[in-house]
Design goal:
Elements (H helix, E strand, L loop, with lengths): L18 H18 L7 H23 L28 H7 L1 H6 L1 H21 L3 E2 L2 E2 L2
Antiparallel strand pairs: 1-2
Length: about 140
């Protein structure tokens, strides 16, 4: 810092005051000016990192809503939205987000979903067959 730092805001001192008092008044004036100044902007790298984090947070929320999940994905027992049970399929699916994120994958790789749905149907049939003769968990003879 050069002497121009201390010349930033001249503060009048009484006539005949010692030289050090004049210098202290200049210093106090500079400090007040700095305190009232607009804070310096963030370095460009920090701004980019902050913007990237904001975009990732938004993208996470959108993908979670497309899959009917909480933004914590059911991984946080302290989550105020789901209490840790918000895994995919736990909430209503956001149809617009589903169309943006999931539907393109279904269209691009339908065989993946057909195979998965076939397995789900087989599992459901086995469950029904295993529970035949039962009503509300009670075996009927």
């Amino acid at each position: 810092m050069g002497d121009d730092f201390f010349q930033a805001v001249p503060i009048p001192t009484p006539a005949g005051a010692p030289q050090w008092a004049d210098r202290v008044a200049q210093l106090l004036g500079a400090v007040v000016q700095r305190l009232n100044a607009v804070p310096p902007s963030e370095p460009a790298e920090e701004q980019r990192a902050r913007k990237l984090c904001s975009r990732l947070i938004l993208q996470n929320r959108l993908v979670a809503s497309a899959l009917g999940a909480c933004r914590c994905w059911g991984l946080s027992p302290r989550c105020i939205e789901c209490g840790g049970v918000g895994r995919p399929g736990s909430f209503e699916v956001d149809t617009a987000a589903f169309e943006a994120f999931v539907a393109p994958l279904v269209r691009a790789q339908p065989q993946l979903f057909v195979a998965h749905l076939s397995q789900v149907q087989d599992d459901a049939r086995q469950a029904v067959h295993a529970n035949q003769g039962e009503h509300n968990g009670i075996r009927i003879q």
